[in-house]
Predict the 3D structure of the following.
Amino acid sequence: MSQNTTPVLTIDGPSGVGKGTVARIVAQKQNWHLLDSGAIYRAFALAVDAKGIDIANEEALGKIAQTLGLEFKTELSNELVSVYLDGKDVSKILRTEKTGEMASKIASIGVVRDALLKRQKDFAKPPGLVADGRDMGTIVFPDAPFKVYLVASVEVRANRRLKQLQAQGSKGIISQILAKVKARDKCDSLRKHSPLKPAKDALIIDTTGLSIDEVITQVVALIEA
Ligand code: C5P
């Protein structure tokens, strides 16, 4: 079955808005596949960094994108998705702020986005797909029947990030996190290729005053409507 016949739910939005959590829970509820497209850009950035490739070398970047040995495994025991790069578990380093910043820089390069496009489209398999990222509804799955765009104030997103760090046993300084979230917003929204923006037909949900459960209820209602 092709992407055209597989139902796809796209969830886009800025950093720290809760896309990943919402996508994972909705995918579990629906028993659909999950695409964490940010993880692909993060893993790609790690591979480029490990190989010491200059990000101005577009030909080398294109080659790495074609040959990236990337595998996602769902650990049923803790419901987390582990990511393997060339056979090595990179799940922890993948989620660091530094990797996110490298990913954001590299994701602004057109040749990288083009080379990673098919890899993302291939996730659309029956019985369905939940895809989260920045351009799922606009570029990767423009024909998706269900599109959501999550927003929340920058302060709320920075606070959520702080709580996430604290839950992982790390410390964070709110003013620094706030500055980083703002910088990432700027980088992702102002870039030339696939800038962060809602698809015209996306349902925009402001999650500022909502719990995760309330957001999930709205998203599931969209699919079941
Ligand atoms: O969502 P996450 O924070 O893991 O994404 C890391 C970076 O990868 C983002 O800041 C963004 O620049 C880039 N990205 C993208 N397009 C996507 C997903 C992520 O450009 N579909």
